[in-house]
Design a protein that fits this description.
Distance between the termini: 44 Å
Number of domains: 1
Number of helices: 10
CATH class: Mainly Alpha
CATH superfamily: CRISPR-associated protein Cse2
Radius of gyration: 17 Å
């Protein structure tokens, strides 16, 4: 097997997003570089609902250093570019106004929603045992990337309001696989398991 064949684009997506989000997060949460971090977050938020590549201010954040195996070769964005764009812009929305890191290793999207339900019990008091929140159900059953991200943005806004963190590297890798019809159901299953599991929070349980 050649080196190129051994490269897993999903892992490349996760590593790139982790490094880029960590850099922005460290700036934003520091005293000396907070303004620089805030500018980057604002740029990504502005690009969140725009077609990929249409906001040239976001190019350095989304494309600079992007592994070659993720770069699209045609007129449409590649699955890797879609996943990176989605994860970075959702993180920018999530971190806005927060004094704690909203990107944290380990917590999956389903686990974050479960923590939201546990943390805001009154708001979700009408849920039956085993029932998922309406937006999370719509997110999981969405039939297009556009629809998936529509509900993801709504949920991320709720997570921001509750100061619940999310592993954006893991989420980006899942969004990459979600675009593959042969892997999509496995990702939905993973989100369902994260939500249903009682041990999804790890050391970050206190959020």
């Amino acid at each position: 097997m050649s080196e190129e064949e051994a490269i897993d684009p999903k892992n490349s997506v996760a590593k790139f997003v982790h490094a880029r989000v960590n850099s922005i997060q460290n700036d934003y949460l520091s005293v000396t570089n907070k303004s620089r971090g805030a500018r980057k977050l604002a740029t990504l938020r502005h690009a969140s609902t725009m077609p990929i590549g249409s906001n040239m201010d976001a190019w350095p954040l989304e494309f600079e250093g992007l592994p070659l195996e993720l770069v699209g070769k045609g007129p449409d964005p590649s699955p890797g570019e879609n996943a990176v764009h989605a994860a970075l812009t959702l993180y920018a929305l999530h971190q806005q106004g927060q004094s704690r890191p909203m990107h944290a290793n380990g917590r999956g999207f389903g686990g974050a929603v479960r923590q939201l339900v546990l943390q805001e019990k009154e708001r979700y008091s009408n849920l039956e045992v085993g029932e998922m929140p309406r937006r999370f159900r719509a997110f999981i059953t969405a039939e297009s990337m556009e629809e998936t991200l529509h509900y993801a943005r709504q949920i991320v806004q709720q997570l921001r309001g509750a100061a619940i963190s999310l592993d954006y590297a893991k989420f980006a890798a899942q969004l990459y696989d979600l675009q593959n019809p042969y892997r999509a159901n496995k990702i939905r299953l993973a989100w369902g398991r994260e939500y249903a599991s009682a041990n999804v929070f790890g050391s970050d349980e206190s959020n």
